[in-house]
DNA sequence: CGCCCGGTTGACAAAACTCAATCCCCGTGG
DNA sequence: CCACGGGGATTGAGTTTTGTCAACCGGGCG
């Protein structure tokens, strides 16, 4: 593995506290691969052979049932996905595909579980990571069950503005059809939801979004730290 | 704490692998309390002062936003709730209330974190528990995003039948208004969804449900292990 | 007995989806 | 350089799903 990747990974919160030789052991059987966009990395239901880590690019976690598909989350550098499946040695609950050209590190799940069994710092880091993931999903579920689609879009835009640096004008990081899937609506409906937010100060021109008056949008969206704050 | 409660807790997967003296330390500052029905045990947004464990009865985890309320999960004996908040020392994301008269064990979060820091078996047990919780919520989210309300009800009934022992006739463990909230619909809509399932072999008379022909209902519901199986 | 409350029903309204047509950007190839 | 084609985005019309409001039913309990 390239030295730069090695260093990037070592600094991940997940690997920070573990013993050097255990980290080295993980890295020995890990490898990094670059994938073009739109490649399916894993398929739900498959056994979890590798822990995946996004080093660059972006990965979409999605799921299919009865011919319908929905996007569950986007994974951006540098973070892992399907940690829970790896730890429990259980099948993937979601599929994953690259959104852009992406560099992915793969660590055999077997080896992750072995090191988990012997390295206490690693075990505790995993607790922290999983607790974080759990709380994120709970927030997503509250978003889904308590808000209308337009309210979800409004709050999504408020979060996206912060994530991209807080400028009044920013760029949606994805196609609108995929944003629709993330929000749990059809692309047509999303289009109408955007129009519905015009009166609350949202200007959308393609993927470029402009929030004219954040506090006005907030009055409509009513963001809540227990749903929308990334931290905590 | 009563000796029987002590033994019950000790056998929990979460506490099984930990050192005796660490378990004893947790128990020393823990206490068990019995609550009547409909008591609010915790409120979302509050700091997570205690890890809660349901010893008997049942607890509803719910959440409120902008005047709307939704039921997120039901906790039945013997299991914990708000473990993630305790570990991260973060505010509760959900509120909790007793559904019936319930015995609840409370362990100060501070103490849980302390023992987590020193007992490796406990730390690993928490990993396993959190990974399980995480996967459960992911399944719930797939259920919500990929299925219509009637499909959710149909699959819920199939799961409930298995959970209660597999008899053709069984009892809903809760009021229908709460089931509606769990499924993310209004009580009126749930009522209509039940009627819609009559043609798929579901007979509902109050809280008593009868599934005339499970395979017929399954043809409609299309249950999927990656959404509906409790294990894995 | 009569009240209260959960459940059901009906009528209507709002939200969201479907299908089809069109637009428009962008990249390709002539 | 421009015409063409493809795919995402938008728009419109109509349908389905879900929610709202009000009325009513019926069992359990004081």
UniProtKB/TrEMBL annotation, chains A, B:
SUPFAM superfamilies: cAMP-binding domain-like, Winged helix' DNA-binding domain. It comes from the Bacteria. Residues 14-133 form the Cyclic nucleotide-binding domain. Coiled coil: none annotated. GO terms for cellular component: cytosol. Residues 147-215 form the HTH crp-type domain. This is Helix-turn-helix domain-containing protein. PANTHER family: CRP FAMILY TRANSCRIPTIONAL REGULATORY PROTEIN (PTHR24567), REGULATORY PROTEIN YEIL (PTHR24567:SF26). CDD domains: CAP_ED (cd00038). The lineage of its organism: Bacteria, Pseudomonadati, Pseudomonadota, Alphaproteobacteria, Rhodobacterales. Keywords: DNA-binding, Transcription, Transcription regulation. NCBIfam families: PRK09392.1.
């Amino acid at each position: 593995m390239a030295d730069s990747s090695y260093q990037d990974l070592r600094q991940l919160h997940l690997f920070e506290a573990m013993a050097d030789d255990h980290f080295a052991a993980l890295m020995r059987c890990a490898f990094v691969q670059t994938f073009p966009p739109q490649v399916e990395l894993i398929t739900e239901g498959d056994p979890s052979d590798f822990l995946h880590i996004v080093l660059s690019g972006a990965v979409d976690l999605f799921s299919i049932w009865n011919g319908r598909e929905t996007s569950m989350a986007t994974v951006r550098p540098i973070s892992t996905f399907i940690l829970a499946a790896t730890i429990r040695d259980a099948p993937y609950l979601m599929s994953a595909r690259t959104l852009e050209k992406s560099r992915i590190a793969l660590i055999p799940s077997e080896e992750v579980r072995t090191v988990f069994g012997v390295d206490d710092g690693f075990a505790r880091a995993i607790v922290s990571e999983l607790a974080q993931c759990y709380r994120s999903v709970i927030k997503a579920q509250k978003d889904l069950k308590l808000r209308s689609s337009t309210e979800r879009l409004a709050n999504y835009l408020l979060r996206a503005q912060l994530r991209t640096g807080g400028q009044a004008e920013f760029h949606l990081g994805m196609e609108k059809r995929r944003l629709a899937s993330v929000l749990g609506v059809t692309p047509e409906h999303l289009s109408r939801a955007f129009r519905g937010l015009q009166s609350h100060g949202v200007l959308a021109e393609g993927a470029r979004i402009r929030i004219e008056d954040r506090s006005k949008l907030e009055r409509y969206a009513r963001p809540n730290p227990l749903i929308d704050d990334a931290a905590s």
